[in-house]
């Protein structure tokens, strides 16, 4: 996720987070943001990349992982703020310009190949996908969220020739609206994960309160990255 309401200026004011403001040359970072609106020049040092002075959970995630894991770490980030799960499915939606799945798969393949061509042995430790706010406030999207996530996971394993590729699916609390609460999307995704040993469902329900419904702000994005890292380290 891009963290469209996680701002660098607010990060500067968060106690103990100063290191996140600096590039980390020990972690390789490749990114494609906003439907290719901003793209890295190959692999770069991990650092701030948001085009509105924003940042995503990769910064605090990487810090937590590096504190526990030895060896080389590379993070490839492919995201499109405002997209829905349907945009990531192999079939896509009616909005063909937002069909992200083929570009996502190609991005993963190219990222791995670039590292191999530089002489590195590469292990894809997992794909990290966050179920955010956009699908939770519209009945049809919320209803179909779990089966769409499952479809993306299944097809990606085939297209990447990684049948045991792990997916870490984090989820924030869904919209608390009476007419939508009959759809238990948390239970639906938990059921998908329970049936697949290589899907890890991370319930990130202890994030700071949000000023606007479901949109995670600066401190929340930092905490989200830490929570995802904790889930990865416990379930890898």
Quick gist of this model?
The protein is of the alpha/beta class and about 240 residues long. About 35% of the residues lie in helices and about 15% in strands. It is built from seven helices and seven strands, in the order H-E-E-E-H-E-H-H-E-H-E-H-E-H.
Question: Your description of this structure?
Answer:
This protein is of the alpha/beta class and about 240 residues long. It has one domain (about 10-230): SGNH hydrolase (Rossmann fold, 3-Layer(aba) Sandwich). It has 7 helices and 7 strands, in the order αβββαβααβαβαβα. Strands 1, 2, 3 and 4 form a 4-stranded mixed sheet that branches.
Features:
4-stranded mixed beta sheet; 7 strands; 15% strand; 36% helix; globular; 236 residues; 3-stranded parallel beta sheet; alpha/beta; Rossmann fold; 7 helices
